[in-house]
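Hello everyone,

My group is preparing for a crystallization screen and wants a predicted model to guide construct design. The compound we'll soak is S-adenosylmethionine. Before spending weeks at the bench, it would help to have a computed complex in hand. I've included the protein sequence and the ligand's SMILES below. Output in structure-token form would be ideal because that's what our pipeline reads.
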Amino acid sequence: MSQPFDLSASAAPDAKPTWRDMWQALLERWYAHPSLYKWSISNPFTRWLTRRRTRQLFDLMAGFVHSQVLLACVRLDLFRQLHRAPASLTELAQRTNLAPPVLQRLLLSAVALGLLEHRSHGRFGLGPLGVPLAQHEGIAQMIEHNHLLYLDMQDPVQFLGNAWQGSMADYWPYAHAKPEPAPDHNELDKFTRYSQLMAASQGFVVQEILSSYFFSEHRCVLDVGAGRGRFACDLAHHAPQLSIKMFDLPPVLAMAREYVQSKGVSDRVSLHPGSFLNDPLPQGADLITLVRVAHDHPDAVVLQILQKAFDALPLGGGILLAEPMAQSPFEQASGDASVDAYFHFYLLAMGDGRLRTPHELMAMMQAVGFTHVERVPNAMPIHAQILLGRKSRCLPSNPEKSVN
Ligand SMILES: C[S@@+](CC[C@H](N)C(=O)[O-])C[C@H]1O[C@@H](n2cnc3c(N)ncnc32)[C@H](O)[C@@H]1O
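Reply:
Good plan to model first. Here are the tokens for the complex, ready for your pipeline.
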């Protein structure tokens, strides 16, 4: 199955080169000049740039080693242990059952990457990048989970030709069009596993939404693809006037019931099992939220979900869509370009979804009838960017698009 991808539409093989193309070609020829490297490191004004580029290239080459150092530290539980108290190499060797000379390689590598730090008397403590890893279980779980992606990508070229056959595609039971599996134990385990991972990793995204958007004008929110209900429960505490509906697949909501009860909000949070592929969305909410849902699905499904959201909303209702989004070469940078490479490959390994730019998602929202579509600025776009749209109370300017 081929993925719809917008870049092919914009390619024009016979187009004349622009001034920018010619400038870039000139720069490329200049960078490739055999004596440039030697000249630039001998010149104090250009040396910093050459050092920086060399360092960036080295980091790209070494990226796999860096992520394995991270994974080894997580698996040995070093971050949580060292958060309690710094420890010496000998103490850590006893706790991890690893020989000091080899463990030392790991610890020194982790120090070099800012994960750990040298402390007094030969002990090791947490470095600046190690502190969040000790505090947020969700990050550690994502690092462990990424192992599946890296397994799939061992041969990246083969992976590109065969992306949906690996461990990641198997991990996500809904993300790739395949025959409906029988709901056996194995399949139910998959729903439990991914829902647990999503709940653990959703904290930063929830914080972005709650600190960027005022929910005070709403009385009922429907969270579509709600998972176990972390967002719904945090929102219920954040905005006590709200009643909240959760919509997700039946096996997921079966798990959510207990979670919602444990958070003490079951009187205001109701569960609505179903599939947005086959069922309409429940009515009654004046805001529908889609948190980390659209990027899991191909364009046709995203349009279908948006259309169902539009149909379920009253006039004046809104939609809030939050997820990691791609940089666009045509828009002012608002996110963080370094996350794009990760999500392009993650979503490819997972199934039929893709990373979209805010512009693409806004166009899809408008295509089903939402108006006043805008970005909701937030502090940390690396976790998610946020878009808002309205089901306008005004008559549509396009008479073919009628609202109910
Ligand atoms: C990536 S998870 C995000 C969960 C949660 N919103 C979060 O941010 O942690 C996507 C969610 O969409 C749900 N989902 C996938 N396909 C669905 C469908 N056809 N109908 C309803 N929910 C679906 C999944 O079960 C999952 O809970």
